[in-house]
């Protein structure tokens, strides 16, 4: 039997020469395999790259991070239950209406999303299916007396990113482990075969292919296509391209459309069935009927600078195309929903009381509190405002994309700086503190070695029928490990805090 691993001797100590070789091997593999992003403006200004041809290595760890096998398996094994749960929540308009009512006073963005839903509902929804490409994020929580467990950080229902790059990161770490570069075989207790496969690209593309097929025949007589609705100037474009190319290799026509151009090139047909039609910008005589729209935009207020953004979202929503996500599915991903679901009674409304599913889901919850005027909310307000107690918490608004949270001692002054009637639109969450780990991060060519914190994301692909809510496609489709230095609170790769990583199971 292999000797037990020793986390303090991981990753292996390398001489400068060995490290240089490993860095070069990582850079080359990343560039050759599209483990890349467009350079951040801090690194390359638009003057230096006026036509946008540069790509740089995505920030990445030089070694896979050690990760408890039981925790990894826990995250995988609960994903299909999460897919079903969020499909159900998305169907439950009354439940979502209550959530929206709770946060609407301090959150104009959520209010506007709800308005889109109401406007579409008045004439009747045309779509027959919904597609969820979800990502449930976790950190490892270790208590002294019990085995480690994953606890959920958040559940993403819109623009769950990094599936494309995470498959490549697993590929990089596998390549290095099997090469002469990483010297992992010298690490006691480490088995380099414990790098699990990571089929994110195939799985996310598979969810879209399922939605595409289930859409059925074209009603307009035009050929069918899938649209990726993206942000202008997206830096994380290769992450998206990996999925697009996988779709194209399964012979599905797929096009990228900037959200800001939606009204220019897409329109809803004036028919009872409201097909979404897309005209190729390069050839106005080429028109497609859109089976599914994958949103990598539209998740934050920045994409709606004026009313035309909201008009675009309304037109998209009222069309027959299958949305990933619909407005209701996007709302289901609000952090307020996660907080409300974390109560056993509310959860049982969706998954039953004593089911195996309910237990598995409950095991992943940590303490999350409302900041409303309920008894629980008033107690949480006290914790949030107390200078000692607040150290254990993170305060979250209903926003996505990283960089929006308020941590620890920043919480009391922040709350005092906003009107009390807006406090309802935040949730207070206990900070999860994973066991210490070490790695070397390579970001923009610089190395940072030291203590790191990992966040595991598990992807799910799910298609369900509108009306009945019947789930017709439900899969867990690989994982993401994002790692950040242990001095940073935020872990987003796109927001510049974290980096790509993969797991080495121990
Ligand atoms: P977003 O939707 O903006 O990604 P998250 O809820 O994922 O919002 O929070 C952003 C980051 O903040 C996470 O990636 C994680 O690094 C950190 N974080 C959030 N919640 C917690 C928590 N309960 N414990 C520890 N870190 C957290
Ligand atoms: Mg999120
Ligand atoms: Mg997050």
UniProtKB/TrEMBL annotation:
InterPro entries for this protein: Glutathione_synthase, Glutathione_synthase_a-hlx, Glutathione_synthase_C_euk, Glutathione_synthase_N_euk, GSH-S_sub-bd_sf, GSH_synth_subst-bd, PreATP-grasp_dom_sf
Cofactor annotation comment: Binds 1 Mg(2+) ion per subunit.
Keyword Ligase: yes
GO MF term list: ATP binding; glutathione binding; glutathione synthase activity; magnesium ion binding
Keywords (A to Z) from UniProt: ATP-binding, Glutathione biosynthesis, Ligase, Magnesium, Metal-binding, Nucleotide-binding
Pathway note: Sulfur metabolism; glutathione biosynthesis; glutathione from L-cysteine and L-glutamate: step 2/2
EC number(s) stated in the UniProt entry for this protein: 6.3.2.3
An annotated GO cellular component: cytosol
Residues reported to bind substrate: 135, 158-161, 234-236, 240, 296-299, 482, 493-494
Cofactors demanded by this protein: Mg(2+)
Domain Glutathione synthase substrate-binding: 225-332
Reactions that this protein is recorded to catalyse: gamma-L-glutamyl-L-cysteine + glycine + ATP = glutathione + ADP + phosphate + H(+)
Binding positions for ATP per the UniProt entry: 154, 335, 396-405, 407, 429-432, 455, 484, 490
UniProt binding sites for Mg(2+): 154, 156, 400
Family listed: Belongs to the eukaryotic GSH synthase family.
Protein name stated in the entry: Glutathione synthetase
